[in-house]
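Please supply some protein, with fold tokens.
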Amino acid sequence: MKRLLFIELQKIWKNRASRILTLTYFILLSSLALISAIKFDLGPIHIDASEQGIYNFPFIWHFNSYFAAWLKIFLAVVIVSMMANEYSYGTLKQNLIDGMSKKEFITSKFLTVILFAAVSTLFVFIVSLILGLIFSDYNEFGIIFSQMEYLLAFFVKLLGFFSFCLFLGVLIKRSAFALGFLFFWYFTEKIIYGVIGRFVFHDFDVAKKVMAFFPLESMSNLIEEPITRLRAIKTLGTQMGVFGIKDYDVHFSSILIVLTWTAIFIFSSYKIIKKRDL
């Protein structure tokens, strides 16, 4: 396992573009602290991010894991390119000639996906813990380490998304087309949601439940947006007479759906490589 992972990491580090994108990703994760500088007016309400409790435990786990997940596109490019380069540079064929089996090849890619997701989760944990210990109004041990399920959801979200990117890289071979298809599929899911909500079920709540089984939507459902939990937004909602009850919890069913898609993507990638004439 270590040998397979070492081979993949060498390939990524020796590729200048992949190296820059990976470093940029982790630098941007570190910049979560800059969110505190955000200030703007929302109608009569002045919003100062630093005063909204975004760094309070345990809310910080939810807030940071949600926004950190938006940066995953940087590593998505690395993963798609990692697979596309195997075809472009002929390293896939050379690895097979050197004795690596097709199963080991896919295993090495999946280990890289797991490593990226795990290191990203650890990074968000460390950054959030440091920010929380510095700025949080609550420092009791029980409060600090409550609601840690958001980090689990973050890890599963990245694992599923990166596995999807790996699958697209295997299927399409060209990184630009694979990334193009990724965005195409994103908008396709949105269109399907609109169509079935308006014309099939005539109920968008039912359509949302159906869409929860689609790959990208299921990943999105893992971590609900935290913005409406901010003090200023709650205050604005109260002034407007809106008292929406929203479920912010991480649900096991959502995790199970994404893990199922992860298994499907990796198994499908292996089947494609196994059957394809390389």
